[in-house]
Structure formats: C-alpha cells, structure tokens
Design goal:
The protein is α/β, with parallel strands linked by helices. It folds into two domains: 118 residues, Translation factors (Elongation Factor Tu (Ef-tu), domain 3, Beta Barrel); 155 residues, Nucleotide-binding domain of ferredoxin-NADP reductase (FNR) module (Rossmann fold), CATH 3.40.50.80. Helix content is 25%, strand content 27%. The strands form two sheets. A six-stranded antiparallel beta sheet has the order 4-3-6-1-2-5. It has a six-stranded parallel beta sheet with strand order 10-9-8-7-11-12, sandwiched between helices. Helix 4 links the parallel strand 7 and strand 8. The chain is globular. The relative contact order is 0.14.
Length: 295
C-alpha cells in the first residue's frame, strides 16, 4: 500500500510493503535488514531514514499496550537510517539494539530488540519513507573538498550510506571517517569499511577509536585506543582546514536531562556533546557542522 498519487510516480514520502531478503549479522547486537520493495521506484537521499510502526508486529502487541498505558499516549513509529546507498538494488536499514539504562532511559525500548533478534528473511514489514535533512547539499563539491565524519556506534549508519553514494557520484570529494566504539567486535560494517577504504585509498580514510579494547593497536595502523580527542581532530583539520563535518552518535537524552535537573545535576556529555566541545575549542564555525543525534 502507498499514499503516492499513482503507481507510475516515483515514491517520495510513502508507506510501502517490503519483504526481508536477508538479516545480516553486523555485531552481536546489530543487524542489517535488506528489504525488497517489489521493484517500485524509490527516490531518496543518502543519510535519510525510514520509519517503522511497532503496531504491525503481533508479538509486540501486549508490550506496546503496556507502554501506552504507562505513558498515556500511543507508541509512535521508530526511525532507522538506511545503510544502503540510493544506487544499490535493495533498501537496507541497520538497527542496533537499544537497552534500558537506569537514569538514562525512562522506559524499556520497544522495537529495536525485536528487529535485531526476531525479524528474519521472508518476513514482511511495512515502512514509511523517506525523511531526514542529514544529507549532503546539492552543491557539496563547490563548498569543500573534504568531509570529516565523526561517528559512534550506530551513528555510522547514515554516514556509511553517504560515503558510498559520494564515492560513486562526487569525483573529487574526499572523506575521513573517525569511528568510535567500545571494542573491535562492536565495529559495525568493519569488513565493509576496510574494503571500501582499500578500493578508494585516495578518497577515503577510516580511523577507529576503541575506548575499551586493550592493545587496540594490534588491529592495524588505523586503530587507536581511547576516545576521539581534540588532538586527533586538530591533526585532521590541520591537513583539511576547509572540511565540512558530519557528526552522528549518542547524545544526552531528554529523559536524562529531566532526571538530572530534578536532582540539581548536569548530565554527563555523550559523544555528540563531546565532539561539539572539541570543535568549538578548535574554532570550527557552526555552519560547517551538521549533526544527527539519537538517544
């Protein structure tokens, strides 16, 4: 089903049925769902997302009803970024399981764990797309020769889509992906990123920062221990001073802000807040920074 005007028109914002072709294990808590859209033409931009309504899954009915009772409102669709690029033959979304964390989340997450652990090839799913302004402008090549991608965890998902699409369509644009994770086993798209960088050595550099991996350097020259710090960003921007920066990752949640405010405390910065602090310290103009937060 769709709310496009006619079947012959390219679908922009529409609700459409898909079939899961494959559930790819990226990490123990992350899957990529490859979706067959039935051959219909889709128009969307790398970096955008689709929405998935949890009410379509009968197995979640009781849990959704309980959360709606507790919250006093209907559960809304959840947004998931595409990891595929628009030129690829199938749509793909990559989902990392969200967990309940005391003092950071008020309620248990409803949908992500189900999509990761229960949805498999052959299942049917209704999605709505496409939305999101976390995309490259049409004139990107006239604005810069280099994009610095700052990502943590599943924040890599829209950026990987953007990188793949740009390597195909922007002949001069170069990319550096700085990707933070806890351990080497937590790196989503690990092998795909290695292959992509090897295929485009002059245009893509991937740097991994592992915060809880002893001996991280053993995984390669592009892997370093610890967090993404201001000195790493300083060294990159010194070589690429005209960079545009696209940052995506965990941010302080609304619930966390409210809980801390009630206690008279300030929430600890998450990845995005830390990156903004670093960029501010380096005097990067805010108009050169594009953010996509989750949490």
């Amino acid at each position: 089903m769709t709310d496009a005007a006619t079947p012959a028109e390219t679908v922009r914002m529409a609700t459409f049925e898909t079939t899961v072709l494959e559930s790819i294990v990226e990490t123990p808590d992350t899957r990529t769902l490859v979706l067959d859209v039935g051959g219909r033409p889709l128009e969307w931009r790398a970096g955008q997302y689709v929405s998935i309504d949890p009410h379509q899954f009968a197995a979640l009915g009781s849990f959704a009803a309980y959360l709606e009772h507790q919250k006093g409102r209907r559960e809304v669709p959840r947004a998931y970024s595409m990891s595929s690029a628009p030129f690829e033959p199938h749509l793909a979304v990559t989902i990392k399981e969200e967990l309940f964390v005391k003092d950071r989340t008020k309620y248990p997450p409803l949908l992500s764990g189900y999509l990761v652990h229960q949805v498999r090839a052959g299942d049917h799913m209704v999605v709505r797309g496409f939305a999101g302004a976390y995309v490259f402008p049409d004139n990107i090549e006239t604005r810069t020769g280099h994009i610095l991608h700052l990502c943590a965890g599943s924040g890599s998902v829209p950026n990987v889509s953007m990188i793949k699409d740009s390597l195909r369509h922007h002949r001069t644009l170069r990319h550096t992906l700085v990707y933070s994770n806890k351990t080497w086993d937590d790196v989503i798209f690990r092998d795909a990123l290695t292959a992509l960088a090897a295929a485009h050595p002059e245009r893509l550099r991937v740097l991994h920062a592992l915060t809880r991996e002893p001996g991280a350097e053993r995984y390669g020259d592009n892997v370093r221990p610890g967090r993404v710090d201001v000195e790493l960003l300083r060294s990159i921007l010194a070589r690429e001073p005209d960079s545009l920066i696209y940052a995506c990752g965990p941010a302080v949640t609304v619930w966390e802000r409210r809980a801390c405010a009630a206690r008279g405390e300030t929430p600890s910065p998450q990845f995005l807040e830390a990156m903004l602090d670093h960029l501010h310290a380096l005097d990067v103009p805010k108009e050169r920074i594009k953010l996509e937060a989750f949490g």
